Amino acid sequence: MYRVVIFGGTFDPIHIGHLRGIIETGEILRPEKILVVPAGHPPHKETKYHTPPEDRLEMTRLAVRGIEGVEVFDYEVKKSSPSYTIETIEEVEKRYGTNDHAVVVGSDSLETFTTWHRYVEILEKTDLVVIPRPGHLDGLTLEEVERSIAPVSITGIVRDFPSPGCVTMETGKGRRIVSLPIREINVSATEIREKVAAGKSVKFLIPREVENYIIEKKLYRRCEK
Ligand code: ATP
Predict the structure, then answer these.
(1) Quick check: is 94 in a domain?
(2) Considering the entire predicted model, what is its pTM?
(3) Which of 54, 62, 79, 142 has the most CB within a 10 Å radius?
């Protein structure tokens, strides 16, 4: 299922919530390739402070190195304009010559999906794969999904497809929203940044290579959420 799966994020820094999400999504959907896409200038994050895109890109590279079928896609970091998912999808279509793709979002991101740039077009162009994040749309009911994608609606549901525990919803736009039954991991990049700033350990919450990079580059010493 799918030639290309896109997993985007700020990755400031990338952590085990992202990484288990990438691995378990790959195990369930078995795409040819998962593209991990660090945002260049994330329009959703209204924080004043951001780690330079080059550092977030490098930490992402270090974290996924050696994970089979997973590649870092630097398109958003390399462009100077804001990172809009719809444009990344269009770029993936151009580069890989396929519309057999899906975009992974955590359930917290689905909650705010109607604020995404050209979100109805995203739902027309690609499938959305939703992974659970504790405290956000727990259980992912039909009503919650419809509220999150309005005015697009769900026209059909197939349970246990493409594998047990998954719920696949058909949208009136000819694409699907697929909810995956993967492990919930209660960790956020905000928590990692706060811990580093407070001098606490982040061992086992991020890969060792990323931890070493943070120390070497003195990232997150000051904590501005
Ligand atoms: P921050 O704390 O800085 O807001 P974050 O931890 O939410 O960051 P992002 O880089 O914004 O991380 O997330 C990228 C994508 O990964 C989003 O779709 C988000 O919903 C998802 N995601 C982040 N953390 C988790 C997690 N622990 N479990 C599942 N999905 C997650």
Answers:
(1) yes
(2) 0.95
(3) 62
Kindly state whether residue 145 falls inside one of the protein's structural domains.
Answer: yes
Q: How many domains does the chain have?
A: 1
Residue 98 pLDDT greater than 90, yes or no: yes
In a domain, 79, yes or no: yes
Q: Which residue's CA is the closest to the ligand 1 atom numbered 22?
A: 106
How far apart CA 146 and CA 192 sit, in angstroms, is: 32
Answer yes or no: is 193 within a domain.
no
Asked if pLDDT for residue 48 goes beyond 80, the answer is no
Q: Where are the alpha helices (DSSP H) in the chain?
A: 16-29, 53-64, 75-78, 85-96, 107-111, 119-125, 142-149, 189-197, 208-217
- CA distance linking residue 41 with residue 53, whole number of Å: 8
Q: What is the CATH number of the domain that holds 136?
A: 3.40.50.620
- Segment 163-186 mean pLDDT: 93
Which atom in ligand 1 lies closest to the alpha carbon of residue 188? 6
Cα of 12 to ligand 1 centre, how many Å? 9
Does the pLDDT value for residue 225 go beyond 70? no
For the Cβ of 10 lying below 6 angstroms from any atom of ligand 1, the answer is yes
- Indicate the top mutation candidate among 7, 10, 88, 187 to test ligand 1's pocket, ranked by most ligand atoms within 8 A of CB: 10
Q: pLDDT for 99-143, tens place per residue? A: 999 999 999 999 999 999 999 999 999 999 999 998 777 777 888
What domain range includes position 75?
Answer: 4-184
Q: What are phi and psi of 38, to 5 degrees?
A: -70, 135
How many Å lie between the centroid of ligand 1 and the Cα of residue 8?
9
Ligand 1 pocket test target in 49, 109, 111 with most atoms within 8 Å of CB: 109
